[in-house]
Design the sequence.
């Protein structure tokens, strides 16, 4: 059944805001009577770039059906990646156009999008915006002042220790002062992408003591997809770097680290099957298009892990997977998914994000396995279900952010699985969590403007690793700023 979904977006306050007032005078270009307001917020900054969120508000009396926001960027600013809109940039002139599911803005309503950009100059915010050619004029707040990353200090979350019983009392990380992600001891050419490995991927099992990827192997740079595939399939340990857009299906063998930079994107999908000890960091995966529910369901996941163990997926941006964005099945185990973003930017019928375990009948391969940690991830929009939907394993879901409005449900604990749902933020979503023949223990979560079930029952489990969970109230800013490819 095809669903028509109205989308909303929850935007955190940031470092600097340009509030552009509504035009009330008669309009003779683009759309007569259109009246608009644009909020532009810097949400993160580092030595060579920044992240911004843009909210487009319809202050008129008629629906806006299809919108394009345009502005002039400061000298040296170059858009690298955008979500919830498609962009073009020619010199300093930037335009952002709606995607399928957020094209309509009701009178008094709003839509939003965000992006990352590099800069060789200032962090100056735009002085004006147009929506469909209509100027939304007004005042602009002062230009943001960049704080060099080298001056900031922070104790990485991965170094904190705690006895991880669900009843433990702790002092939330949110009570300390820190600048998420953009803090480092030197000013990097790209923002740092690793906050340190924690979770199930650190736990010894199946012949490995932890997850190290290609450590100890040679470091290579792939110039094209053929080179990337040849390196990834190699039987030798290897650290593989790439940038730009690569198109195809990437198969990854054991003992590999793959690191993207400068807007690295795989258009297609990534498959890990029968492998071990793999690290994927700092790139985007955008699934191929599919035409119908059945066609999508029969298609590939944007990232799929089968019969593999000790995998760390970190700072990825995964969108528009055909069957799913990132599915884990067939006895896979010891997996950590951290600081990543998941969503759908096309209004297809099958928008199911993260499935753990393919069938209730797979006990022979899955029982005692499918142990996964999700932390500091952001389901930002478009996904309808499975964030995640689990079977068999012990799944620890902590410090994640959910703003995918118009969804069916977020987290579901399925057959013989135990979910510890800890200190997450659910904002504007339907059915934050539910049960489907599994146990789910919910503690410390934030529910803001939510509806539907918030079911918690059973004893879940005690994670066999050290970690520190920050307060759910801080996640809207820290996860939006830090999650995804940089």
Sequence:
């Amino acid at each position: 059944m095809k669903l028509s979904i109205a989308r909303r977006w929850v935007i955190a306050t940031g470092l600097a805001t340009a509030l552009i007032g509504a035009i009330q005078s008669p309009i003779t270009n683009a759309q007569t009577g259109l009246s608009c307001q644009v909020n532009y917020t810097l949400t993160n900054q580092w030595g060579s770039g920044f992240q911004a969120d843009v909210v487009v508000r319809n202050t008129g009396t008629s629906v806006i059906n299809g919108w394009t926001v345009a502005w002039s960027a400061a000298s040296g600013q170059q858009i690298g990646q955008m979500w919830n809109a498609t962009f073009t940039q020619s010199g300093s002139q930037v335009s952002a156009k709606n995607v399928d599911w957020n094209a309509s803005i009701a009178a008094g309503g709003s839509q939003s999008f965000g992006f990352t950009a590099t800069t060789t100059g200032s962090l100056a915010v735009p002085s004006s915006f147009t929506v469909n050619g209509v100027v939304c004029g007004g005042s602009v707040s002062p230009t943001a002042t960049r704080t060099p990353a080298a001056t900031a200090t922070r104790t990485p979350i991965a170094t904190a220790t705690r006895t991880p019983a669900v009843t433990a009392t702790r002092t939330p990380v949110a009570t300390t002062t820190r600048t998420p992600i953009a803090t480092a001891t030197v000013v990097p050419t790209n923002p740092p992408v690793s906050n340190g490995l924690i979770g199930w991927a650190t736990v010894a099992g199946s012949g490995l003591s932890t997850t190290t990827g290609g450590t100890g192997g040679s470091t290579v740079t792939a110039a094209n997809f053929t080179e990337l595939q040849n390196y990834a399939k190699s039987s030798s340990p290897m650290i593989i770097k790439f940038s730009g857009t690569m198109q195809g299906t990437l198969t990854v063998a054991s003992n590999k680290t793959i690191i993207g930079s400068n807007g690295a994107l795989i258009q297609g999908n990534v498959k890990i099957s029968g492998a071990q000890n793999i690290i994927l960091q700092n790139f985007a995966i955008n699934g191929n298009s599919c035409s119908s529910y059945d066609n999508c369901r029969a298609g590939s996941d944007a990232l799929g892990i089968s019969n593999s163990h000790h995998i760390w997926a970190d700072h990825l941006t995964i969108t528009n997977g055909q069957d799913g964005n990132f599915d884990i099945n067939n006895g896979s185990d010891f997996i950590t998914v951290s600081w990543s973003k998941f969503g759908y930017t096309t209004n297809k019928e099958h928008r199911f994000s993260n499935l753990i375990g393919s069938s209730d009948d797979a006990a022979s391969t899955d029982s005692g396995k499918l142990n996964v940690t999700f932390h500091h991830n952001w389901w930002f929009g478009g996904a309808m279900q499975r964030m995640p939907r689990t079977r068999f394993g012990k799944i620890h879901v902590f410090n994640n952010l959910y703003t995918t409005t118009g969804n069916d449900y977020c987290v579901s604990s399925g057959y013989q699985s135990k979910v510890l749902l800890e200190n997450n933020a659910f904002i504007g979503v339907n059915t934050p969590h539910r049960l489907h023949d599994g146990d789910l223990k919910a503690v410390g979560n934030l529910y803001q403007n939510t509806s539907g079930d918030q079911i918690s029952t059973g004893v879940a489990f005690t994670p066999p690793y050290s970690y520190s969970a920050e307060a759910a109230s801080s996640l809207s800013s820290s996860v939006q700023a830090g999650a995804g490819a940089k």
Remarks:
- Residues 1-31, 138-194 have pLDDT under 50 and may be disordered.
- The chain has two domains: 16-136, 149-482.
